[in-house]
Automatic annotation (TrEMBL):
<dbReference type="InterPro" id="IPR012577">
    <property type="entry name" value="NIPSNAP"/>
</dbReference>
<keyword id="KW-0809">Transit peptide</keyword>
<feature type="domain" description="NIPSNAP">
    <location>
        <begin position="157"/>
        <end position="254"/>
    </location>
</feature>
<protein>
    <submittedName>
        <fullName>NIPS2 protein</fullName>
    </submittedName>
</protein>
<dbReference type="Pfam" id="PF07978">
    <property type="entry name" value="NIPSNAP"/>
</dbReference>
<keyword id="KW-0496">Mitochondrion</keyword>
<dbReference type="GO" id="GO:0000423">
    <property type="term" value="P:mitophagy"/>
</dbReference>
<keyword id="KW-0072">Autophagy</keyword>
<dbReference type="InterPro" id="IPR011008">
    <property type="entry name" value="Dimeric_a/b-barrel"/>
</dbReference>
<dbReference type="GO" id="GO:0005759">
    <property type="term" value="C:mitochondrial matrix"/>
</dbReference>
<comment type="similarity">
    <text>Belongs to the NipSnap family.</text>
</comment>
<dbReference type="InterPro" id="IPR051557">
    <property type="entry name" value="NipSnap_domain"/>
</dbReference>
Length: 256
């Protein structure tokens, strides 16, 4: 009994300490206004395609032929941030991340122009025959995260996706605005986003590592920094579900 009581004491102290942690700003305002970058008006689209296993090579080849043309077309206010295949996680999966400079008007402009693009129309039809399912989300980037910019490789990428409890997005932002400083030493932080349309209360953190062992070493090192364990302790209860994808970039991806 003494041992059990002694072991539970730190957890009880931590719980009591949590009662006095800085509270979320009670202002009535949209999450996008409180959490997103104010100096940019970029909107991001995350596409996740589950590909028929026998079609993955053909799918990749098709994407490598068509997606760069959209990325490089000056009349389209969008850019391909990164494109990957999932290595560990759901198999035979493709992940694409696009940025639309100018927010929703830019998205509408690109979609309108692509509907008039016969090559893209043919691409979508051929691509559709290769897919089992697909989904997308429209995202904004957190103000305190790095801007996702092209980088040289080779790297592996981890997309960590969190389904938060409704009503906790600002609280998550408050904690991660402090937590991100613990994960900057090795330039592994690529971008952080939260959903606006699609599955709501979703957060995506994108990281880059040289390999799986480097990922393990960097993540373990964070636990030796004072304060990291406390921030993890407070953010875990905000999560309903979480998923990790380890991804390999395609040759056309600006994030290599």
């Amino acid at each position: 009994r003494r041992l059990g009581s002694s072991a539970s004491r730190p957890r009880e102290d931590s719980w009591l300490k949590s009662l006095f942690v800085r509270k979320v700003d009670p202002r009535k305002d949209a999450h996008s206004n409180l959490l997103a970058k104010r100096e940019t008006s970029s909107l991001y689209k995350l596409q996740i395609h589950n590909v028929k296993p026998e079609c993955l090579d053909a799918y990749n080849k098709l994407c490598q032929e068509v997606l760069p043309k959209i990325h490089e077309e000056k009349h389209y206010p969008c850019a391909l941030v990164g494109t990957w295949n999932t290595w560990y996680g759901e198999q035979d999966q493709a992940v694409h991340l696009w940025r639309y400079e100018g927010g929703y008007p830019a998205l509408n402009e690109v979609m309108s122009k692509l509907r008039q693009n016969k090559e893209f129309t043919a691409f979508r039809k051929e691509r559709g025959n290769m897919l089992l399912s697909r989904k997308n989300q429209l995202l904004l980037e957190f103000s305190f995260w790095n801007e996702p910019v092209p980088r040289e490789g080779p790297n592996i990428y981890e997309l960590r996706s969190y389904q938060l409890r409704p009503g906790t997005m600002i609280e998550w932002g408050n904690y991660w605005a402090r937590a991100i400083r613990f994960r900057q030493d090795n330039n592994e932080a690529v971008g952080g986003f939260f959903s606006q349309i699609g599955q709501l209360y979703m957060v995506h953190h994108l990281w880059a590592y040289k390999d799986l062992q480097t990922r393990e070493d960097i993540r373990n090192a964070a636990w030796h920094k004072p304060g990291w364990d406390e921030l993890v302790y407070y953010t875990v209860p905000l999560i309903q579900e979480m998923e990790s994808r380890i991804m390999i970039p395609l040759k056309i991806s600006p994030l290599q």
